[in-house]
Amino acid sequence: MARYVARRVLQMLPVMIGTTLLIFVMVWALPGDPFAGRCGQRPCSDAFVAAETARLHLDQSLPVQYGYFLWNMLHGDFGTVANGDTVLHQMIRAFPITLKLTTVAIAFEVVLGIGVGILAALRRGRAFDRATLLSSLVVISLPVFVIGFLVQYIFGVRLGFFRVTVASGAPWRDLIMPGFVLASLSLAFVLRLTRASLLETLNADHVRTAIAKGLPRGMVVRRHVVRNSLIPVITYIGADIGTLLGGAIVTEGIFNIQGIGGLIFSAVKLRENATVVSVTTVVVLIVLVVNLLIDLFYAVLDPRIRYE
Amino acid sequence: MKQRKLIVASALFAAGALALTACGGGSDDAGGDTGSSSTAAVTIYNTKPQNALIPSNTNEVGGGNILDNVFRGLVTYNPDTAAPENAMAESIESTDNLVWTVKLKSGQTFQDNTPVTAESFVKAWNWGAYGPNAALNNYFFAPIKGYEDLNPADPDEDGPKKAPVPTTKELTGLKVDSDTQFTVTLSTPQSFFPVEVGYTAFYPLPEAFYADTAAFGKKPIGNGPFQITSGDGDSGFTLEKWAGYKGADQPKIAKATFKTYTSDAAGYADLIAGNLDFMEQVPPSALVGDQYQKDLPGRTLNKPVGIIQTATLPMYVKGYDDPNLGKALSLAIDRATITKSVFNNGRTPATGWVSPIVEGYKPGACGEFCTYDPAKAKEFLAKSTFKGPFSYSYNADGPGNKESAEAICNSIKNALGVACQANPYVDFSTLRKDEVAKKMKSVYRTGWQMDYASIQNFLEPLYATGSSSNDGGYSSPEFDALIKKANGEKGEASLATYQQAEAVLSQQMAIIPLWYQSQQSGWSERLSNVKVTPRSTLDLVGLTVK
User: Fold this and answer.
1) CA of B166: which chain A residue's CA is closest?
2) pTM of the model as a whole
3) Among A19, B85, B268, B298, which one is most buried in terms of CB atoms within 10 A?
């Protein structure tokens, strides 16, 4: 197991370097002059252009710029932004907020998605099952911003159950509504996936044997069915974490959450290459680590899986 | 057994959900405030400042909102008439519009109790004008004598050679006469100088700025009625009334919070829920069917601002410098229908090149060419050397740009019977890049937001030969001469000459006026005496809280 983990960690390195290089090249290749929009309707002064070009090494070739970036990153210097802030400070402020939001979303997915999926599978064909299938279908068909605006308007503005937007610093209770909105699509998928996987396992030989042996239904489900059905679901949730981290931008906009979604969006607009590449690098790292943890979790779920 | 477990589980779930809603509903947070006392803060919608909070480096509304309340310049602008009124200045006088004597009111101080002197202004202006400081508002100091020495040009444009370091750090045109007087010598006469000096770039700076510029940019020390007590760009700033302010414009509120929002939709949701007090522009979705007026009954305004949208013809493309073409295109655009259907009357059809709110505005400078007349348009097109097809380039990241571009092209197609294609650019900076490099192939969307409320600001920087924002390449010696003449005159005579210059633009129609912009603001029930400044921001001086 230890060798497996070590191998996986070593494999992360080329993936990260490759991704950062790719993002760097893509942002660099974006059309438009980085200074053209900065000074409004006037061209920026020569001195400003010269100062910024020197600061960002824009007059050097692409490999040299990338080299500067890597070198600085290894020293912990991710670059500075136009308003004097450092990229590192921006990330330290924004990442925890997005991670909190993602955690709430994952919690909804796991508890509601898997929980209701199991119940629906056990009550297959009955009213509860039909209701969950219908509601999850509705959620899948609606775009996330429609769900977001609806939930915000009905539960926030009109009924006043929740705060309409999230306070700065993103306290946990403010993130319940946005977390639910963010999780809604994935929740519907997890629900259906759990239900389908469970239904398949319920027909397996070992389950029929357990029931025939006389074990109570509840114990059969808990001990033999659920754990075996969870592998595809856990795979999906693991892959989803990356999507949630990156795709939270719409939800963050609706609820005014100062997370990395808005950070990347405004950085791309202002051509702040350092911010875009740094944030993306950290997201890639998080996704890689989470996927490694998910893979290790399989061994917990299914004792037959062994890692060398 | 199963039934009981299910019932228990549902009950627990329901109880949990209720508990959560109780948590969520009764919260109050650090930023906004829904308290009912009049000492509670007024919460105002703001965007994140793009640059450090340094006056000569702030040219956008996110930072401007903060600085305009924390500082006071030589003059402020009356919220109703946009006319300049003396603030730090006692008087600004000149006999020839070239040499200006600025006298300051005595006894004014900064919020760290250091005095506001002539030195505070002169040193600040020198800092802003000095090229290597890379201040975004550097060009505002260009009219002052000595500017070129602080901003040597790049000897070979984009080539490998860099601009040389300036030999001096002080403008020869600025001279401190005493603690309360300084003299400004311009390189050319400017009648609008007393209006211009109220702009953010000209604010005075305390010595603390030079000691630690980086810290100042996070928490500036000003001389205005409010001081920053806490906050940062990402969550927002809290401003409190400064007891030591000696000016006449004392605010009536004690505290204001400029809350940073990442999207205007979130801000609007907070506004109608009562968590936000003022939004200077409601999102376009709230304008449809005048929804914002239904959501905020009696608490909205729809007022023209100093912004105009135009369509520019590139004079460097063959055929576009024919006046008949400009006239034909202008007559073919149905402004009234477009402003009504695309902008829900958030814009007013333009009759000239100058916004209605500035001093010197005279309607009708464009004359017949800004009306919709397809028959006449066809006549002019027949006389023109170039007859199409046309394209209309615009930046797709602005709200309403796509719809208005397509509407303009459709109008041209219907009126003239020639092909017109709306050509999107992915964002503003990409469009600007091609404009500045003179690579545009056909008509393109341009706009202008005024720096200060003067008719000069809508004419000279845009249409004078070779001026900084004249990318289309329009050049008219008659226009240039009239502008120069107006700059040297005073009062009504000066305004009349500017109006004559504006009329010259209708001869070539190289820039087609489209519409004036208005702002649609909304506020909560807590506010009264709501007024917006000519800069479209909330006037915090006259504002009261119920």
Assistant:
1) A47
2) 0.82
3) B268
**CA distance to B270, B278, B345, B346, per residue, from B521 (Å):** 14, 7, 14, 11
Residues from chain B contacting residue A252 (CB–CB below 8 Å):
262
Residue B394's SS3 state is strand
CA distance A263 to A260: 5
Q: What are phi and psi of B308, to 5 degrees?
A: -130, 145
Structure tokens at A166: 């999230």
CA A138 to CA A252: how far, in whole Å?
22
Rounded Cα distance between B477 and B11, Å, is: 84
**Which residues in chain B are contacts of A165 at CB distance < 8 A?**
261, 266, 269-270, 275
Neighbours of A59 (CB within 10 A): 13
- Helix, strand, coil shares of chain B, percent, nearest 5, are 35, 20, 45
Confirm if B465 and B418 have CB atoms less than 8 A apart: no
Angstrom distance (rounded) from CA B119 to CA B274? 45
Q: Which amino acid is at B277?
A: D
Tell me, what DSSP letter sits at residue B256? E
Q: Is there a contact between B430 and A164 if contact means CB atoms under 8 Å apart?
A: no
In this predicted structure, what is the pLDDT of residue B105?
93
CB contact (8 A) between residue A157 and residue B24: no
Q: What is the DSSP annotation of A246-296?
A: HHTHHHHHHHT--SHHHHHHHHHHTT-HHHHHHHHHHHHHHHHHHHHHHHH
Residue B297 scores a pLDDT above 90? yes
* Contact map slice: A 98-137 vs B, CB within 8 A: none
CB contact under 8 A, B132 and A161: no
SS3 label, residue B442: coil
Predicted local confidence at residue A36, as pLDDT? 62
pLDDT tens digits for range B193-248: 999 999 999 999 999 999 999 899 999 999 999 999 998 888 889 999 999 999 88
- Does any CB of chain B come closer than 8 Å to the CB of residue A213? no
Under 8 Å between Cβ of B515 and B340: no
At which residue do the structure tokens 């401003």 appear?
A: B239
B266: nearest CA in chain A?
A: A254
DSSP string, A74-105: HTT---B-TTS-BHHHHHHHHHHHHHHHHHHH
- For B345, phi and psi rounded to 5 degrees? 60, 25
CB-based contacts of A17, cutoff 8 Å, min separation 6: none
Q: Is the ipTM of this complex over 0.90?
A: no
pLDDT at B512 over 70: yes
Alpha carbon B6 to chain centroid, angstroms = 61
Query: Between chains, do B262 and A258 touch, taking CB under 8 Å as contact?
Result: yes
B239's tokens: 């401003």
Q: Find tokens 């989470």 and name the residue.
A: A290
